[in-house]
Write a structure and sequence with these properties.
TIM Barrel, single chain, binds coproporphyrinogen III
Length: 348
């Protein structure tokens, strides 16, 4: 087997490097014209996710354009709720809509058991992509955190405040925990199958971490992320695969993320690099966290911001360059080129 990317896996193993590896969250997506062209052939986004040949092509698009140091499976975090029978679809410009959301505690006990085979299309994407992708480039698999999956499943769609979800956990705390436990087990099985199918690292996205108070965060989210990490570390098939956790603006301290069985902490935009360095140096790698909005600025501003970031992490053992959240559809793809070149020029 060809040695995996010099940079990305080495960084996850906390090696200091002159040029940090770079990939960006949501690197395959609507900001790319070649993505929009493929996307126009599908009415429902999830139907596209269920077509492995197409997903493989979408994974490769940003790699071909920018020569990123890691690729990420093309899929979505909402495949698990869909497999649980909650009926997920994505309507034009509206985001996800659930036809059978979790409205009452009974909906949890009546839910279908999670059958990892029902997400075969994702493992096929992983297998096919691993075959097509340059063997030296690592492939990242992913899942949503149980809390983030529960929030969408209860709310039934995206929402500003997720009021239905907040009242569900207040009024039915035990049932919420039952649901989160089911989701954590499903995430473990799902990630394990992705690893068996060829992914080289995994990332857990806790995109709705920001909805919870510190105390609630530990109880409803972090507890279940820890459960997944523990199960991955105890299974001989998954124990060696590096792990990344990204949480959007969590209200707990950085110290709470110094988790056993975690390789790398993914910093949201608001995290101060110096604070993260002081907490994670020597125990975890760090990934992030350029504000995606910087990509709307002039090239000189992008270059300046990159240099500032690189100087913060210059001596940090295990730094991976990324944005502090996913890239948005309004970004001009040329700006990503400016970003990538600035990083590589600085290190050369
Ligand atoms: O390169 C990649 O990262 C592509 C793979 C990927 C997608 N979604 C494809 C996608 C990944 C890793 C995700 C994760 C995901 N999905 C998250 C976590 C990351 C984050 O940004 O916090 C979340 C919260 C979702 C749920 C989701 N999927 C929403 C809310 C939406 C609609 C609005 C939006 O943010 O785009 C999606 C749809 C989606 N998932 C698109 C893509 C490319 C756009 C769909 C389209 O083309 O119509």
């Amino acid at each position: 087997m060809t040695e995996l990317n010099r940079n990305f896996i080495a960084a996850l193993n906390r090696k200091t490097q002159k040029t940090p590896p770079i990939w960006i969250m949501r690197q395959a997506g609507r900001y790319l014209p070649e993505y929009r062209k493929v996307r126009s052939n599908f009415k429902n986004f999830l139907d596209m996710c269920k077509t492995p040949e197409i997903c493989c092509e979408l994974v490769l698009q940003p790699i071909e354009r920018y020569d990123f140091d890691a690729a990420i499976i093309f899929s979505d975090i909402l495949t698990i709720p869909d497999a649980l029978g909650l009926g997920v679809s994505f309507l034009e410009g509206k985001g996800p809509i659930f036809s059978n959301p979790i409205k009452r505690p009974e909906d949890i006990s009546n839910m279908a058991n999670f059958n990892p085979d029902s997400l075969d299309y994702v493992y096929k994407t992983a297998e096919l992509t691993r075959k097509e992708l340059n063997p030296s480039i690592p492939l990242i698999g992913f899942a949503g955190s149980p809390w983030t999956l529960a929030a969408y499943s209860i709310e039934g769609s995206s929402s500003k405040n997720f009021d239905l979800t907040k009242s569900f956990i207040e009024n039915h705390s035990d049932d919420a925990h039952k649901f989160l436990d089911i989701l954590a087990d499903a995430c473990f099985e799902y990630l394990k199958r992705q690893i068996i199918s060829g992914v080289d690292a995994i990332q857990i996205f806790d995109s709705w971490a920001n909805l919870l108070s510190e105390e609630q965060y530990l109880e409803y989210s972090l507890k279940y992320i820890k459960k997944i990490l523990k199960k991955l570390s105890e299974d001989p098939i998954t124990s060696k695969t590096p792990t990344i956790v990204f949480a959007r603006d969590p209200k707990c301290t950085l110290n709470e993320f110094k988790l056993d069985n975690l390789s790398c902490y993914g910093m949201f935009t608001s995290i101060d690099p110096r604070s993260a360095i002081s907490v994670f140096e020597g125990t975890h790698a760090l990934q992030g966290n350029l504000d995606p909005k910087i990509l709307l600025e002039e090239d000189s501003v992008i270059k300046e911001s990159v240099l500032k970031m690189l100087s913060e992490f210059k001596d940090f053992p295990g730094y991976i360059f990324n944005l502090g959240h996913g890239i948005t559809p309004d970004i001009n793809p040329d700006k990503v080129k400016v970003l990538v070149e600035a990083i590589r020029e600085a290190g050369s």
